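re: ur question from yesterday

yeah so i grabbed the chain u mentioned. its 161 aa long if i counted rite. heres the sequnce exactly as i have it in my notes:
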Amino acid sequence: MKTIICYATKTGTTETAAKELAGLLGAIKVCNLEKETPDIHNFDLVIIGGSIRMGKLHKAAKKFIDANTKELLSKKCAFFICNGFPEQAETFLIQNIGQELLSHSICAASLGGELDLSKLKGMDKFIAKAVTSSMKDNPQAVPKLLHESIKEFAKTVKAEQ
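ran it thru and got these structure tokens back, copy pasting raw so excuse formatting
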């Protein structure tokens, strides 16, 4: 089964998750949607991931999903997001991908997120500083990639390949 992972990232976290997922799934194509727009007609399984900022999916991922909804509904597909608040994943997924595609997908999940102030600028950095200062008493609350979630996502996808 020909599989592609398409992703869009702002600070590199989603790219890290996409590459880790690709490593678990084996030899598959990985595509950065900010650099290229793949033709998904040649793939049996399409996995799309994007970062979430302020509740919104990365523009490039959202644009790609919207442009390919009909094709995605005719294929096996899966979706992942990288965000700092995995407990809100279902809301973010429904708001940004839509119930129709999510119901059709083989899986959809948050793979966690990272908060690296050195990669942020402007308002994103300002907001992130406020968030991290509120977390200083609870280091467990600092967002991080959820490697176990990535493994579970890969396991679910492999069962469909």
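noticed a couple things. The radius of gyration is 15 Å. also The helical segments are 13-25, 59-72, 89-97, 99-104, 122-135, 147-160.
anyway ttyl
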